Amino acid sequence: MSKKIIEIKDLKREFLMGSETVHALRGITFDIEAGEFVTIMGASGSGKTTLLNILGCLDKPTSGSYLLDGVDINKQSRDELAQLRNRKIGFVFQSYNLLPRTSALENVELPLLYNNTVNSKDRHERAIHALEAVKLADRFDHTPNQLSGGQQQRVAIARALINEPVMILADEATGNLDSRTSYEIMALMQDLNQQGKTIVFVTHEPDIATFSSRTITLRDGKILTDKTNEQQISAKETLAALPVTNE
Amino acid sequence: MLGIIIGVASVIAMIAIGEGSKQSIHDQLSSMGSNMITVLPSSNLQGGVRIAGASYQTLTEKDITAMTREARFITEVSPAVSSKSQAINGALNWPTTMQGVSPEYLDIRKLTLKDGIAFTEHDVRASAKVCLIGQTVIDNLFQNGENPIGKIIRFHKIPFQVIGILNPKGQNAFGQDQDDILIAPYTTVQKRILASIYFQNIYASAANEQVTDSATAELTRILRESHRLRPAEDNDFMVRTQAELINTLSSTSGLLTVLLTVVAGISLVIGGIGIMNIMYVSVTERTREIGLRMSIGARGKDILYQFLIEAILISITGGVIGVAVGFLSTWLVTAILKWPTVVSEPSVILSFFVCALTGIFFGYYPAQKASQLDPIEALRYE
Fold first, then answer.
1. How far is CA A216 from the centre of its chain?
2. To the nearest whole angstrom, how far is the Cα of A79 from the nearest Cα of chain B?
3. Do B296 and A78 touch (CB under 8 A)?
């Protein structure tokens, strides 16, 4: 557990809104090591989305350094950043962002279409494995509108896994789901974490944070607290403890 | 898609209709004998005095033989002799002209028969006393709708059997009635009426309008040889073409070509703008998809290619449907409006490819726009 996936030093990001400069991030420093399950919390306006964009290589900081798996983001071109996202990061979004009218399998294959080192046969096999890993082996040919919200999010997670990224970056991944399904997704995340995946989970729900091993809380573009959770709660147990509803 | 379909279809239909009109205008002008070449005996010096051409006798059977044997740009040749006299049928009479010609004359002058048959080579050899009759002569010699076919009329005191009726041609450009005519084998007119071995004219038709000049040069050469003229001597004949008609013909078809090109161009631009609109809407509707694709590793280039390929596919599909619709509407125009149409293969191939190219051209801008999107904003786009 010594390898550092993310090294952030004095990260700042400013936006020009007309004549005013908005300081979204005012100097943030933290590292994330391989195998960690980190939640980033904060109220709206705390800079959490900006941080997420930078972590996801969608945006570059105004100043400060960000090393992702040893690569300095500041030195990468637009196309190199795209490749970095393709190889090192798996995104999971709040609104799933699956392609409509496209089967689950094809949705999962999508990232590999932009990775020309993988041929179509491997792509197909890896997509099947990824869907099996999220327990959707019987839903290969379903299109997103034939799947429930939780199932759609699991397809999205399978899509995030297929490139074998160094980090899974989840943006409010449970925000659109009811609490039971949320716990299911969190149980899946914990499973993946136990298999060695590094997970960064942005959320504003405190109970979601309790499933992680570490919580970073932001306020006004600065880190308010950065603490390790002594008692990581198992999502599976929480799920089992939920009262059984009429089904 | 609809834009490109309409674009391709209208190009094909427009060009087909235009080509059809061009063809029919061309046919009409050709029917006036635009490829006709006339050879006249020329004035010549005789002891310092120029003699009028018509009275000069230079064109003979020998020239016709030479022309039919040697000429390559000439398809048909007919000698012509004419005689003015009184035509008589029973109690009625009418002054008219008898034109003595060979059977090819009808083709050269684009004359057709309304009824009966034309005389043949055999009649020419036999100097047969048969004739074809023009509408004006019929009107004056036959009353109460009497059928002239098979009737005997007299011309210059010689009885002729009417074997065919000419379709009316009306007046020519100089106000002469072209239907006031009798047409008979030239040998008959030469031997039985004029007692002459010379021709007053030779009519010939060039293979088409374009080779008229070559045909003229060729005829001049052949006739000079046939008349054994030395290089220093003037021609003892004149070769005349329908230059005015040919000019009208080429300027008309030139004008139509310009018109068609403009129409086709406008249609293609409309089709292209259609493609651009579709691609724009597509890019806007799929902004989130673009954002997603970018966030999972698509480069700007990948997005650009994706949308360009879509534009090409749409325009090619539209092109195929457009070709079909174009053929269908062309067929409808012919079937319902009785308008002549000609679907030319080049126009189909051209409009298809040009439309596909316009699709790419107009698809490029929206595709470019999509590839430049900021993935963060695209992902949050509602």
1. 15
2. 5
3. no
